[in-house]
User: Fold these one by one.
Assistant:
Number 1:
Amino acid sequence: MEEMTNESGWRGSREGWLDAASEALLEAGVDSVKILPLAKKLGLSRTSFYWFFRDREELLQALVGRWREKNTGGLVQQTLAPALTPAEAMLNICDCWLDSRMFDSKMEFAIRSWALQSDDISADVRKADQERLDALRQMFVRFGLSEVNADVRARTTYLVQIGYITMQTEEDIETRMQRIPDYIEVLTGTTATQAELQRFAARHGYRPA
């Protein structure tokens, strides 16, 4: 809930400051995430920042926490989503790549760029990578694959998508959807049924031209 101050009228909110910091990170990198420019962007006093964060470092850590919760949490959750076949399970994972509410690729790129400047953030990224890979590997194991095979398929799945993100590859929805069946076959060694593909397309609001 937003709160009033005598000095500025509004203190804003913790989420509002985080949203502004996130936008700055995406637009110009971590060096642009500074208190005074954010305050000006929000139309708030600089002092109102300190109602929600001790300092800039706490704000930066909150950004990392938001990334971790959304991207790692979203991907891990999808590995546990109900699926009767490996193809269906992989389509659940593909939901992440098409729905930024589950996995924010722009934030992923920004955090990985930040990691090039910071050993601490680099360690956070390595930890997230391992957690995500472990979740993907366990997903494959649940479908009867050996630990080695599951590990290779998990790495292939994950590294392909991270490659998409770090190379800032852009695909329109038509191109991505046309490629999905072949990706499923390559990544799982199985073929998605027409019904599975139709359910996947429907939940992303896609209808073939």
Number 2:
Amino acid sequence: IAQRLTAAVQTIPTFYLTIDCEIGKLLAAREEINASAPKDKEKKPLYKLSVNDFVIKAMAVALQKIPNCNVSWTEGGMLRHKHSDIGVAVAMPGGLITPIIRKAETKSLSTISGEMKDFAARARARKLKPEEYQGGTTAVSNLGMYGISHFTAVINPPHATILAVGTSEERPVVRGGKIEIAQMMSVTLSCDHRAIDGALGAELIGAFKLLIENPVMMMV
């Protein structure tokens, strides 16, 4: 882990793009979906979606909408990916690991949620297989559960991007000259400038913002 992080910082020319997302619709949809989740024989819900499940799905769909960002830099040329394989940073004793949700753009939120719960449990038990955490096209790192409002994340090669997700919190916003309270979340996209320039990165984080603020668009 230390070797890869050092190589990433020393060899990848990185720039950062931060944007604020209003997630009131997302939280309402999450509450409604979780409330209507089917139950098992013990009357426990079969799934319970987290905000991070929506983030993973939104990032996967955004990469499909901006395919020039779904790339990896190699010395031989640019590698373009067909699917959105999203790595998700999971803390474990002595470091972190990034299991991959493969073809995340094709999966339902409940499927993503189930895979993440399984990956997280096995990651902490050090039972992940190498093919489950190697490769991928981008990654998501979420520190919102720790109350962190904003941070930047280190790109994990061969990825060209990583999305750092802060906490969901009430903030004052101005609409039509009036101050209102909205549920906001800040995200920061780290980009490898060899593969993605500023304007292209802005398109990707803009596509993510549109999806996360309007979660029904992820279902289409």
Number 3:
Amino acid sequence: MSGFPPAQIIPPQVLLGAYAQGVFPMADQGELTWFSPLMRGVIPLDGGFHIPHGLRRVLKQQPFEVKWNTDFRGTMQGCAARDRTWIDGTILESYCLLHRLGYAHSVECHDAEGLQGGLYGVALGKCFFGESMFSRKTDASKIALVGLVEELRARGFLLLDTQWLTDHLRRFGGEEVPRDEYQRRLKIALGDQGTSFHPPVLGPGV
């Protein structure tokens, strides 16, 4: 995707404070709106995650190399490259800043022709807030999701937030929980963060 127009930056502490309260931003035609859905999408990390049989066969073929944080901006731009997007210049630059500070991460699928898909999100405490995903080649975003879940499990994460539940995520075991139940899980996953946030360790080899 080509460049965005000049953008404001959402201060990192504002973004992180919002996530700690279960709130996230989206942009629509230049207007920034904050959301806290009544029903929240989550993917279980305690055994409820399901890899469809067809994807299991694809994973054995290893069509992509899964990397972390090698092209965060490119991953966001891939997610934004659609007819209608909620990722504008403000969102892009704000999350790229969070990435530089160690809070936002990308999981990327690469092949000999470059970046073919992936996802990005924000990590805080033992919670990963999934933001968006994209594919240029078949199954790239799905394979990135599998890589994310494997890493979160290895790091002892407790909550994988998908914001809203889609049919695509439901096939992986995604479920909806009421806002009060989500807030309960979020509080546990954040632990004693308060307002003094520290970026969690995340990413293979880190």
Number 4:
Amino acid sequence: MSEYKSVKGGKLKLKGASDHKSSSKKHKKKKRKREHEDGQAMDEKGKDAEKHGGWWAVTEFKNIKGNVAIEMGPKTFLFAMDNGLFTLGAPHKTTVEGPAPPEQITAIPVSDSKVAFKTGYGKFLGVDDKKRVVGRSDAMGPREMFEPIFQDGNLAMLAYNNCFVSCNDEGELMATSNKAGPDEMIVIRSDAPLIKKKKDDLPEEQKGDLRECEVSYVKKFQSFQDHKLIINESARTGLSSAREKGKLHEALLDRREKMKADRYCK
């Protein structure tokens, strides 16, 4: 009998049950880690977008489509001229200021790794015989196809002549270097929504970019005693994350309260 007493009691353990439980825990842990990393990446993109008028930096080829802008330096974008040439636009100084219309182009994926770009003048970007990147072509061909190369968080653009795109000292867009150095590093920015909403249940005042949201709220709550629309033009830091958390209304009212110009503010 003493031998039976030495045996520890407990729940019945089935063969393979512990292994399944362990693998399930590992799967859930990896899933939570991925969700956490994805959330952090979205937060970083959101903060970056706030500093560039809602335009976020593309980090994957699949996102190079639709309306984009090519940033050649800090808040300095490629500017299309009506003669088909390109130059650098003036640096943008405010966080609410995104790329100007001549700095916006349309990205058209043509394969799993190559993309074509079309200017607002309806012309495709291509490389001419002088290795200049110009926007004068009415159709896409090999010269009008570019390959974005992502590596270590950086992006360079490879042209059809196996040279990377950069700006020279005169501000002209060229494809002359067969190596990607600091001068060839660019940023492609998109104004596409960062998160696709499963259900469009947002009130009208919360739709559009952050400045449009604030204008809508001001129109809704301002008394208009002086018949002027008064907007808080300070940096909209934190509004993007507030919208994601469903607290945009409160954040906008806080901004109105700081101005002390609306008797309806809390």
